[in-house]
Amino acid sequence: MAIVFNSCRGDDEEITPPGVIPVAPPSLGPVKGFYLLNEANMGSNKSSIDYFDSESGYYFRNIYPTINPGVTMKLGDVGNDIQIYGNKLYAVINCSHYVEVMDLNTAKHHNSITITNCRYIVFDKGYAYVSSYNGPVQIDPKAPLGSVVKIDTTNIAVVGTCMVGYQPEEMVIKGNKLYVANSGGYRVPDYDNTVSVIDLNTFKEEKKITVGINLHRLELDNYGNLYVSSRGDYKTISSKTYIIDTNTDKVTDVLHLLPNSNMTLSGDSLYVYSVEWSHITEKNTVSYAIVDTRTKKIVTRNFITDGTEKFIKVPYGLAIHPQTKEIFVTDAKDYVSPGTLYCFDSKGKKKWQVITGDIPAHIVFTDKKLQNIELLSNNQN
Fold it and tell me: Coil, strand, or helix at residue 33?
């Protein structure tokens, strides 16, 4: 939080310029590429979207203004999530308080919807669910309860709101239940420590599960276990990982030795990286672990196997290619200048890297090739 609130740029700073960079050999398959949402620091108004095209091996930086010259030259302030549902691409722009909806085939602006201090988005049966801090972007011991906003994706209209815990973050859907990680991050040091459970049939919060403080990430494995990250208080209470059995909605395990900044599931392997600041050493301790979800055991503490981790200053984004199992890790570096995206093979050896926008954070793979490749190639060189 200190970084977010104390390292802001001015509104007049230049956004990362468009560019097209060859980074990898052409590759054919059902996955045509991915979109990467660069958060950019709060107050800089520099969020941007990059696109990697698998079939050409080219990386296209900051595609939104080229494709949408009549809408805006800037996507907004703090890109917090990017997801695909149907034929639409959704980008959650936190401090600009809106969700941008684009055509998946072209990345052209389709619609947008205002949601106060929006954070993450998930989908189910024609509806989008967006977590919202439901108040101003500021530390406040009296910050209000957060909410989950329900959107009809056919007309991009709000059709319901459900109050949850304080400053809700990631969400996961299992059956007819929506799980929401509540952080309470604005109410420091009085953090929230609950996961809200919403019945999607009634769109009412049916219970809260007590977990750990300052919750953030959620990941559902193939056995009904929900992994939950607790960020601790950044001082005396360390980050750790909790496991909830979604059949009973009870905490069954606490992985005290698995600090967790971000995680993603691939098969039965849960990839987890952690960045923890030590007030004693005044430096970050970074780890890259894999958990076998069949046994709930850590099988490695470093899924990067060629030493490249020594060059990554602040890991910030994480994704696993659904087809090749390539590992993607982003580096936010100093949070105020362009970051780097690293691609590793499934064994953790680096294949390529590329400069991104500021604070590269969120990746979503697509099976639809972007149709504006020629336009981007002509305008981004």
Answer: strand
Give φ, ψ of 202 to 5 degrees.
Answer: -105, -15
Residue of 135, 37, 171 lying closest to 91 (CA atoms):
37
Task: Give the contacts of 14 (CB within 8 A, at least 6 positions apart).
Answer: none
User: Rounded to an integer, what distance in angstroms lies between the CA atom of residue 343 and that of residue 86?
Assistant: 27
Q: Are 291 and 272 in contact (CB under 8 A)?
A: yes
Q: What is the pLDDT of residues 263-291, one digit of tens each?
A: 999 999 999 999 987 776 777 889 999 99
Give long-range contacts, CB 8 A cutoff, 24+ apart: 227-231.
227/260, 227/263, 227/270, 227/291, 227/293, 228/181, 228/195, 229/181, 229/260, 229/261, 229/262, 229/263, 230/193, 230/260, 231/183, 231/260, 231/261
Task: Indicate the length of the chain as a whole number.
Answer: 381
Query: For the chain, percent helix, then strand, then coil, each to nearest 5?
Result: 5, 50, 45
Alpha-carbon distance values, 226 to 173, 246, 275, 322 (Å): 10, 7, 21, 20
The arrangement of strands across the sheet holding 58-61 comes to 19-22, 58-61, 48-53, 33-38, 360-366
For the chain, the average pLDDT equals 93
pTM: 0.94
